[in-house]
Amino acid sequence: MARNIHPALSQSLAEALPGACIEAQSLPLCPELTLYLLNADFPQHELPPELALKLMDEPLYWTFCWASGQVLARWLLDNPALVRAKRVLDFGCGSGVAGIAAAVAGARQVVACDLDTLALEAARENALLNGVAIEMAPDFDAIEGEIDVVLVADVLYDRGNLRWLSVLLQRASSVLLADSRLPDVEDPRYRLLGTAEASTLPDLDESPEFRHVRLYRADH
């Protein structure tokens, strides 16, 4: 079977990661969804020091479907009432997997927000690949109108980002959070909905603790 490679996204990736490409891949937890991601057979050799430093400064989050994003997407597909007919914000969208799942589940409108313009481009292409449309927002503070639900997956890797738990809850009626980096969310407004096991795609061979995803919900 011919590989479904996205030429424009692959070209954007080439400077940072020579030899890599972006190709369509179905998700293990969400086989009904397909995303443009880093090719799974990209050589797992040690990167040259200069490339490794560049990737640390400018991580290519959008080229992966992270474990928490996949778990949140599965949760939305299995519980569509959480987003059906609602205006949804996918905060720190990366590949856009959570927002796309919300759109498939019947959200009235989905807005994908990310500081990385390439992530927004990838999220747009991934939405089209799955037959849905989502809006793009590079600036959270510039988003107008009411937001019913905010989706947050894999953004708490930096403890400095914990402040967003309060900021987002002030902005929306509900926040759905999926995370594998924090053993517990100390904010009492966020109640645990459940847990699930998942791995990042393509597989980064992460520590087992980062495959254990916790799902939380908070209501304004």
CATH topology of the largest domain: Rossmann fold
Main sheet properties: 7 strands, mixed
- CATH class division of the largest domain: Alpha Beta
Global shape: globular
Poorly predicted ranges (pLDDT <50, ≥5 residues)? Answer: none
The multimeric state of the shown protein is single chain
Strand order across the biggest sheet? Answer: 5-4-3-6-7-9-8
The CATH superfamily of the largest domain turns out to be Vaccinia Virus protein VP39
Could you state the order of secondary-structure elements as H and E? HEEHHEHEHEEHEEE
Radius of gyration: 17 Å
Please indicate the percent range of residues in DSSP E strands (runs of 2 or more). 15-25%
Structural class: alpha/beta
CATH architecture of the largest domain: 3-Layer(aba) Sandwich
Counted beta strands: 9
Structure description:
- It contains six helices and nine strands.
- It has 220 residues and is α/β, with parallel strands linked by helices.
- The protein folds into two domains: 7-63, no CATH class; 67-219, Vaccinia Virus protein VP39 (Rossmann fold), CATH 3.40.50.
- Strands 5-4-3-6-7-9-8 form a seven-stranded mixed beta sheet.
- The protein is globular and about 45 Å long.
- The chain starts with 6 loop residues before the first helix and ends with a strand.
What's a concise summary of this model?
This protein is of the alpha/beta class.
Which helices and strands appear, and what pairs or packs with what?
Elements lengths: L6 H8 L7 E5 L7 E5 L10 H9 L9 H12 L8 E5 L5 H8 L4 E5 L3 H13 L5 E3 L9 E7 L10 H8 E8 L11 E7 L14 E8 L1
Parallel strand pairs: 3-4, 3-6, 4-5, 6-7
Antiparallel strand pairs: 1-2, 7-9, 8-9
Helix pairs in contact: 3-4
